[in-house]
Amino acid sequence: MYPLCFRFPAFSIAYLCVVTRQTRSLLSVFEEDSGMLTNYTNQLLQALQRVFGAQSEMGLATEQLSQQLLEYEKKNFALGKGDEEVISTLQNFAKSVGELNSLHSELATQMADSMVFPLIQFREKDLTEVSTLKEIFGIATDEHEAAMVKYSRLPKKKENEKLKSDMMKEVAYTRRKLHQASLQYYCALNALQYRKRIAMLEPMLGYTLAQIGFFKKGIELVSKKMDSFLNSVSNMTQNIQAQLDVEAEAMRVTHKELLSGDDTVYMPDRDTEPVNRTLIQKAGYLNIRNKTGLVTTAWDRLFFFTQGGNLMCQPRGAVAGGMVLDLDNSSVMAIDCEDRRYCFQITSPSGKTCAHISTQVGSRLRWICTVNNISRQIYLTDNPEAVAIRLNQTAIEAVTPITTKPGEDLIAPGTPIQFDIMLPASEFQDQNRAGGRRTNPFGETDDECSAETDDSLLQQVFAVRFLGSMAVRCGKNQEVIYEAMRQVLAARAIHNIFRTTESHLMVTSSNLRLIDPQTQVTRLGFQLGEVCQFAAHQENTRLMGFVVEDRDWSDGGEEGEPTFSAFVFESNTEGEKICYTISLAKDITEAKKDPEALAQLMKNMPLTNDGKFLLLDTETGNHSNGEGNEDLESEA
């Protein structure tokens, strides 16, 4: 395109004042081109600014990525097997990404200086200058047109020389002003045709040079520092993938084998695995009974596990578990619930209880065995598994009688064991009619009255659970009690008999009586003279037993053959206290034969206000109303 200019032989004022049609047409072309250039420049600047913004965001993103890679080490994942190599590799990557971040930041700075800034400068300087000169040219044109209109209206008849002179000066002034504005405007339009070429090329030149510099520095960084590192990372990922493939194949085979089984394995009551009685750890879902109101309860299904000597519970959604019960020296029992099956109850020494439901009878037995083992504090030994196995083996071997002395059998092989005390219905009715006292069918009441008088010297009640009784061969050796304990406990464990019934053992100065807490009916009764041996277990302090002598009149002899029976109990208190009370009762019985000896005994022992021997507080206060006489389970 030809440059916009005035082409005439001489500067004639009259010619300058006339803008030809050709000039006007050419000027409109230049102005249209300038407007299009302005719009395109704005669009191009937006595209360049978007590239610059993306590059700046790339720098910020790589910086955040570098920081995030370093955060992996601080997470302390619970399943962190093999994370050491991953942590070190991510740290190296974070360092490399940090170096790349510096290159991205430098590239963004170069784009701002050599790509965006030149185009902004072109728009603000050149295009704004043309727009301003166009406005000035338009104002000068309007002023010139107005001056010419005034000049053309001068009257011909009455010429006013002064008015005419003023109008001519005004026309000359506006022409000169229009001439100067047009020259500046046309020159700016002509220069814009050259400046726009530079403005279009300079940003792209700066962009390309900045990218080339970035790539060169990036290649140097990768080739010199990262070749060996990237090769090691690639090998490590390939090894991990190989391990994953092997594990996935093993899981696929296992998955197939598990799904190929019979659908009966999903039945809740199916349990074909033998019960391991040596467990010292157990975990699984149980239902625990919680109070929802004054008299209402609800069963909540939660995850329970044993840790150390504690029973722990982890509710759904909880991060860790909390302690429910201390299992040291606790007792566990299978109980009957009206609305649930497979229930068992754990009781701590402090009296705190919690009832649970298992999914099947085998699972309940495993929990009971585990709690029993933990209550003995086996987990505190150096090798708890071996101790649990030894104790279980000892219990199994105890079914076969052993001898403490050569040639002396304490218990005959195959001797039956009675695990419960069955009270005949007739005797139960007789005792109810007698107010809880056994009546003598022969009407001999003098001894009974005397016994009641003697009982006033000592009456001590203990809460006990009857474990079993069996016939023994001798009554003068405490070893026979220990052997009976072993065989009773072993038989209960072998035959899965954990249920016991709580009773009150009353020790008086004349007899021993086992009383039902609910009905106050005497289940068993022995005169102190019939009790020939009594002892507490040497390890499990809650176990105690005694041997009772009786007579067998079946052979027709006058005196009858002596027979012996051992009775084994589990108490809420130490067995030694019960044995001490029985010993004291025997001492009182012997002292009653000599008034002076009885007086001396009463002088040496503390007495209550009513003249009874002061020993221990009663242990049956919580059961005095007959409460709690549920079927319990022995911790032994």
TrEMBL record:
Membrane topology summary: Peripheral membrane protein
Keyword Phosphoprotein tagged: no
Domain PID, first and last residues per copy: 462-520
A Pfam family hit: PID
Gene3D superfamilies given in the database record: Arfaptin homology (AH) domain/BAR domain, Pleckstrin-homology domain (PH domain)/Phosphotyrosine-binding domain (PTB)
InterPro entries in the record: AH/BAR_dom_sf, BAR_dom, DP13A/B, PH-like_dom_sf, PH_DP13A/B, PTB/PI_dom, PTB_APPL
Main location: membrane
PROSITE patterns cross-referenced by the UniProt entry: PID
GO biological-process terms attached to the record: cell surface receptor signaling pathway; cellular response to growth factor stimulus; homeostatic process; negative regulation of D-glucose import
Keyword Coiled coil attached: no
Chain intervals for the UniProt region annotation (Disordered): 617-636
GO CC annotation, single: ruffle membrane
Localization per Swiss-Prot or TrEMBL: Cell projection, Ruffle membrane; Cytoplasmic vesicle, Phagosome membrane; Early endosome membrane; Nucleus
Keywords, alphabetical: Cell cycle, Cell membrane, Cell projection, Cytoplasm, Cytoplasmic vesicle, Endosome, Membrane, Nucleus
Protein name, as recorded: DCC-interacting protein 13-beta
Origin species: Takifugu rubripes
